[in-house]
Amino acid sequence: MKTKDIAHTFQNGGRSDNECLKMSVEYLRKNKDSLSLRGIERQLKMPDTTLVKAVNGSQKLAKHWEEPLNNFLNNLKNCKCGSKKK
Question: Is the pTM of this model over 0.90?
Fold first, then answer.
Protein backbone atom coordinates (compact mmCIF):
# COMPACT_ATOMS: atom_id res chain seq x y z
CA MET A 1 0.00 0.00 0.00
CA LYS A 2 1.33 3.44 -0.93
CA THR A 3 1.94 6.04 1.77
CA LYS A 4 -0.77 8.26 0.28
CA ASP A 5 -3.25 5.35 0.44
CA ILE A 6 -2.34 4.62 4.07
CA ALA A 7 -2.82 8.28 5.01
CA HIS A 8 -6.17 8.41 3.19
CA THR A 9 -7.38 5.25 4.90
CA PHE A 10 -6.33 6.59 8.32
CA GLN A 11 -8.01 9.97 7.73
CA ASN A 12 -11.24 8.32 6.57
CA GLY A 13 -11.75 5.86 9.39
CA GLY A 14 -10.40 2.87 7.50
CA ARG A 15 -12.62 3.44 4.46
CA SER A 16 -11.22 2.98 0.98
CA ASP A 17 -11.37 5.61 -1.77
CA ASN A 18 -14.27 3.76 -3.35
CA GLU A 19 -16.20 3.61 -0.06
CA CYS A 20 -15.67 7.33 0.54
CA LEU A 21 -16.85 8.18 -2.95
CA LYS A 22 -19.95 6.01 -2.52
CA MET A 23 -20.69 7.65 0.83
CA SER A 24 -20.40 11.13 -0.69
CA VAL A 25 -22.74 10.26 -3.53
CA GLU A 26 -25.16 8.60 -1.10
CA TYR A 27 -25.16 11.73 1.10
CA LEU A 28 -26.04 13.83 -1.94
CA ARG A 29 -28.72 11.33 -2.97
CA LYS A 30 -30.39 11.59 0.44
CA ASN A 31 -30.20 15.40 0.44
CA LYS A 32 -30.74 16.20 -3.23
CA ASP A 33 -34.08 17.93 -2.56
CA SER A 34 -32.29 20.44 -0.32
CA LEU A 35 -29.15 20.96 -2.41
CA SER A 36 -28.44 22.41 -5.82
CA LEU A 37 -26.42 19.68 -7.49
CA ARG A 38 -25.80 21.97 -10.45
CA GLY A 39 -24.53 24.64 -8.04
CA ILE A 40 -22.11 22.14 -6.49
CA GLU A 41 -20.91 21.14 -9.97
CA ARG A 42 -20.24 24.79 -10.80
CA GLN A 43 -18.43 25.44 -7.53
CA LEU A 44 -16.20 22.38 -8.02
CA LYS A 45 -15.75 23.18 -11.73
CA MET A 46 -17.17 19.79 -12.73
CA PRO A 47 -18.51 19.24 -16.22
CA ASP A 48 -22.26 19.84 -16.47
CA THR A 49 -24.46 16.95 -15.28
CA THR A 50 -21.52 14.91 -13.87
CA LEU A 51 -22.78 15.02 -10.30
CA VAL A 52 -26.43 14.82 -11.33
CA LYS A 53 -25.76 11.58 -13.26
CA ALA A 54 -23.79 10.11 -10.34
CA VAL A 55 -26.55 10.89 -7.86
CA ASN A 56 -29.25 9.52 -10.18
CA GLY A 57 -27.18 6.36 -10.71
CA SER A 58 -26.79 6.64 -14.48
CA GLN A 59 -23.02 7.17 -14.29
CA LYS A 60 -20.25 6.55 -11.75
CA LEU A 61 -18.43 9.57 -10.42
CA ALA A 62 -14.79 9.61 -11.50
CA LYS A 63 -12.33 8.96 -8.67
CA HIS A 64 -10.48 12.25 -9.23
CA TRP A 65 -13.58 14.12 -8.01
CA GLU A 66 -13.47 12.36 -4.64
CA GLU A 67 -11.22 14.82 -2.81
CA PRO A 68 -12.90 18.03 -4.06
CA LEU A 69 -16.36 16.60 -3.34
CA ASN A 70 -15.41 15.30 0.11
CA ASN A 71 -13.85 18.66 1.02
CA PHE A 72 -16.98 20.47 -0.14
CA LEU A 73 -19.30 18.13 1.80
CA ASN A 74 -17.17 18.28 4.96
CA ASN A 75 -17.28 22.07 4.83
CA LEU A 76 -21.04 21.92 4.30
CA LYS A 77 -21.61 19.44 7.14
CA ASN A 78 -19.42 21.45 9.53
CA CYS A 79 -21.04 24.79 8.74
CA LYS A 80 -22.19 26.55 11.88
CA CYS A 81 -24.26 29.11 9.98
CA GLY A 82 -27.22 30.32 11.96
CA SER A 83 -26.21 28.61 15.18
CA LYS A 84 -26.39 30.57 18.38
CA LYS A 85 -23.10 31.66 19.89
CA LYS A 86 -22.55 30.81 23.54
Answer: no
